[in-house]
Amino acid sequence: MTFSNTLIYWYLQNNRDLPWRKSRNPYFIWLSEIMLQQTRVAQGLSYYLKFTDTFPTVFDLAKADESTVLKMWQGLGYYSRARNLHFSAKQIANELNGEFPSTYKEIIKLKGIGDYTASAIASICFNEPTAVVDGNVYRVLSRYYGIKTPINSSAGIKEFKALAQTLIDESQPGTFNQAIMDFGALHCKPQNPLCDSCPFSGSCMALEKKLTNELPVKEKKIKVRKRYFNFLVIKTDDNKTILSERKGKGIWQGLFQFPLIESNKNINKNELVSSEEFIDLFPAETTISLFNEKEIVHKLSHQHLYTQFWIIETKKLNKATIKWTEIEKHPVPILIANFLETFLTKK
Fold it and tell me: pLDDT digits over 270-305, tens only?
């Protein structure tokens, strides 16, 4: 109990003033936890405030169309989070009469919710002693106990979950979980942790054995795939373009994009116009220019997108039905959103 007491004492003096901590409403806690997956608090905070203002209840979120939800999510990335959030909101509103499940076992059944999020909601909102384990928790526990089991291995996931569960303060599990997450984010940081002022400095194995920079251990990541994207940004004489919704499974499902020609390397103008996709799309004469002189590299967790935006000017195109004056209404990947921000200011 010494570990949890020390941790909670630190937290009561140093916790961050965050809007979702002023509530135990599971809807707000759920929103915050989903948004902060793979996202820093500083970035996610404005999205959380915008979401709760637009969708103050789970019924409001459930009634929204997916395109609106994705547009509001634009820039946060990992769009499956937004789609799952919207799916579960409709399930809660329509099948559960707006009542959020109140136990870990029921919460984890919701789409897009895993062990971490279910544990956070169950402990914070319903006082169930289920320990959270996220990147911050892995780091704190691996350093304090000197554990070298890779945190992204099946053995590591089980080991750290079991350890966290033995440490949780069952009388205040929500406070304990928030304390250990804040401690990892603010004090036991990935780089330059504040070891000199750490309340655990006298018993931390990593500090004693000079392993702080080596822990936690991660197994080698999968090889990153390189892909080469050529977006065709069409401008017709009547100020229209083509913007299509991506169908099927994928990271950008439900988002909109310009016509895309994917190549196996970086290509030039001659290679572009001689491709079958280009010839099929543009039977008439066009004027072509490359918008970005240097290819834009958009890095995702498992692939790097080497991207060129080609401005294609043509008189008329039957498939071009989207007005340029309305283009910003559509949810697009951040890669295209950044392009549009620059392109539209230069028009």
Answer: 999 988 888 888 877 889 999 988 889 998 878 899
**Enclosing domain of residue 279:** 225-346
| In contact, 241 and 258? CB cutoff 8 Å | yes
Q: List CB contacts of 307: < 8 A, sequence separation 6 or more.
A: 228, 229, 230, 231, 292, 295, 296, 297, 298, 335
Q: What are phi and psi of 96, to 5 degrees?
A: -115, 15
- pLDDT number for residue 126: 97
- Do 152 and 271 fall within a single domain? no
309 assigned to some structural domain: yes
Is 341 buried (19+), middle (13-18) or exposed (0-12) by CB count in 10 A?
exposed
> How do 225-236 and 303-314 pair as beta strands?
parallel
- Beta-carbon contacts of 230 under 8 Å, excluding residues fewer than 6 positions away, are 260, 261, 262, 263, 267, 272, 307, 308, 310
pTM for this structure? 0.81
- Which residues sit opposite 283 in a β-bridge? none
Q: Which CATH number do you get for residue 323?
A: 3.90.79.10
33 part of the active site: yes
Look at residue 141 and give its three-state secondary structure.
Answer: helix
Q: In sequence order, what are the beta bridge partners of 233?
A: 311
Annotated catalytic residue, options 33, 66, 159, 313: 33
Residue 219 lies in a domain: no
Domains in the chain, number? 2
Distance, in Å, from the CA atom of 43 to the CA atom of 2, rounded to the nearest integer, reads 34
> 245: helix, coil or strand?
strand
